[in-house]
Amino acid sequence: MITVKQPNEIKLMKKAGEIVYDTHQLLKDHLKDGITTKQLDDIAYNYIVSQKGYPSFKGYQGFPGSICVSINDEVVHGMPSSKKIKNGDIVSIDIGVIYEGYHADSAWTYAVGKIKDEDEYLLIHTEKALFEGLKTIKDGSYLNEIGLAIENYALSKKLGVVKELVGHGIGRNLHEDPDVPNFKNNSQIILKEGMTIAVEPMLNLKSPKIKMLSDGWTIVTKDKKPSAHFEHTIVVTKEGYEILTKR
Ligand code: MG
Ligand code: MG
Q1: 87: which residues sit within 8 A by CB, 6+ positions away?
Q2: Distance 240 CA to ligand 1 centre (A)
């Protein structure tokens, strides 16, 4: 069931989204050669609870971390561990926060030090793909236009679109209806003012194929080439959309 949120609910999601955004800014400053993904996780946890929020992912279906940290060929769901970040890595950080019963969710891929030109290309165009998708959103538009725009943009840049994982509705639950695919689909859902969704393209430098590691969480590219992930939680408005996961 797709729910349309009331202004007071959107206000709480916006507050959750601000904590998500601020946590991203904080982690960005700590993303340096030598830091472990567990250290990043601890910084995120401490900050989020200091803001009276709680990490949405912690304990979600048994996930042990507060955030997901996915490095280079890791697509999503990287589990915080003793693994160290190195100069030249690209690091996807996915953060969800629940605040007074409402969630917000946003992922961003960061460059650590000097990265390869092809990685830079992947980052630039995955972020652009997110905004190509968002641009289609307004009250009365078809949800399937989001995926079509993202896929068309990604293919024009010769990037691989991950199809096994999709965006989602969000609100009282981290994952709600509807699914928000990043590719051409036949959804007949019409967006309405007050719907809140997370749009989150995951693009691979080469092949779109992915697999799960034996830890049962981390998703990686099959060809070991890099992957990027950009996500915002938004609310549909009369004229377009408003991003909830930023200041
Ligand atoms: Mg996310
Ligand atoms: Mg999400």
Answers
A1: 33, 112, 113, 114
A2: 21
